[in-house]
């Protein structure tokens, strides 16, 4: 019998509500809304316009990278290098502009760097069959080291003739007072969601994560697509680095340190399955938002910030437990 990616599966039709309630993203979104409602009554400052503005802006950097990470996880891989890639791309942008080049040249240099790093990771994983964990763990160290070399391990806070343009790009609010990073995040989420839901490339990514051997037999170009998803992951980190540089107004070699853990947590909490084959762009945004609300609420409630890792780790475990329970019910 010939295998087909679009082979129909007979099942009882489910209502829209039943389908949503079976989704991990639905319950994470419900938890996020309940947390926001509780904090609005429990504190005086959570629902203030200034705090909500800060939350929406802070969540964007994790969310943008989580979009690329979700695609990698759907394909059955992992990318531990995103925090260091963010640092490297930020530093390439800063050093290029500091040397007197325009913002356009700086952005192209940063994006080019991200794509080269992503291609390197993808080629080792897809064509040389290196474990994704090992490849990206090594790149985590290499990319940050290259950032130190590029800047001589110094802080860069002067961005040449287009200094103000860069600050406006990352820290401005050009549309209805909405922070620019939020607009970028929404646009990138819509693009990612469209690619995953409506394109052949997206269907192939899901097919590879669901069953790579079957995908190969059905003619899916597995290796090029694997390279592409790692390039997309690195690109998302590079874009976040460009935006964060403009927001902070300075770049240090510590920027993005440990960010890969928050990004993976956002993707997993939002419904991506580390075994591959499952994940959505919307889930990545919801997971990132929940992490930022947790971080923000600890200070407002007077809880020691050191508890942040416990809450986020607990949320990851709950997400995995939910997935296991869902698979158990489906197997019955």
Q: Total helix count? A: 14
Q: Note the overall shape.
A: globular
Largest sheet: none
- Structural class determined from secondary elements: mainly alpha
Strand composition percent? under 5%
Describe how the helices and strands are arranged.
Layout: H1 16-21, H2 24-42, H3 49-74, H4 82-98, H5 103-126, H6 132-151, H7 163-171, H8 180-198, H9 200-210, H10 212-217, H11 222-248, H12 259-269, H13 281-300, H14 308-331
Helix pairs in contact: 2-13, 3-8, 3-9, 3-11, 3-12, 3-13, 4-5, 4-6, 4-11, 5-6, 5-11, 7-11, 8-9, 9-11, 12-13, 12-14
Short description:
With 332 residues, this protein is mainly α. The chain is built from 14 helices and no strands.
Task: Describe the overall structure.
With 332 residues, the protein is mainly α. Helices cover 72% and strands 0% of the residues. It contains 14 helices and no strands. It has helices at residues 16-21, 24-42, 49-74, 82-98, 103-126, 132-151, 163-171, 180-198, 200-210, 212-217, 222-248, 259-269, 281-300, 308-331. α3 packs antiparallel against α11 (222-248), α3 packs across α13 (281-300) and α5 runs antiparallel to α6. The chain is globular and about 60 Å long. Residues 7-11 have low confidence and may be disordered.
């Amino acid at each position: 019998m010939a295998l087909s990616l679009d082979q129909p599966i007979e099942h009882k039709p489910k209502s829209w509500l039943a389908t949503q309630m079976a989704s991990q993203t639905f319950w994470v979104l419900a938890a996020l809304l309940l947390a926001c409602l509780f904090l609005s009554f429990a504190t005086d400052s959570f629902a203030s316009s200034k705090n909500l503005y800060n939350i929406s802006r802070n969540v964007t950097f994790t969310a943008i990278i989580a979009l690329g990470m979700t695609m990698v996880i759907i394909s059955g891989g992992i990318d531990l290098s995103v925090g260091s890639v963010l640092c490297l791309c930020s530093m390439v942008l800063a050093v290029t502009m500091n040397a007197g080049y325009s913002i356009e040249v700086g952005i192209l240099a940063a994006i080019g760097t991200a794509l080269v790093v992503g291609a390197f990771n993808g080629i080792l994983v897809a064509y040389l069959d290196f474990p994704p964990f090992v490849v990206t763990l090594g790149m985590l160290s290499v990319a940050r080291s290259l950032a130190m070399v590029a800047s001589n391990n110094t802080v860069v806070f002067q961005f040449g003739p287009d200094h103000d343009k860069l600050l406006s790009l990352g820290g401005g609010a050009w549309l209805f007072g909405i922070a620019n990073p939020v607009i970028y995040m929404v646009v990138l989420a819509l693009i990612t969601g469209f690619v995953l839901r409506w394109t052949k490339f997206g269907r192939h990514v899901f097919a590879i994560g669901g069953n790579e051997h079957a995908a190969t037999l059905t003619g899916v170009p597995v290796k090029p697509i694997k390279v592409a998803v790692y390039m997309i992951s690195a690109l998302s980190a590079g874009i976040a680095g460009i935006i964060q540089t403009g927001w902070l107004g300075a770049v240090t070699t510590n920027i993005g340190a440990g960010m890969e853990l928050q990004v993976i947590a956002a993707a997993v909490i939002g419904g991506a399955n580390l075994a591959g084959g499952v994940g959505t762009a919307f889930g990545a945004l919801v997971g990132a938002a929940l992490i930022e609300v947790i971080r923000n609420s600890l200070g407002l409630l007077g809880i020691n910030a050191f508890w942040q890792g416990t809450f986020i780790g607990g949320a990851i475990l709950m997400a995995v437990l939910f997935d296991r329970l869902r698979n158990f019910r489906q197997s019955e």
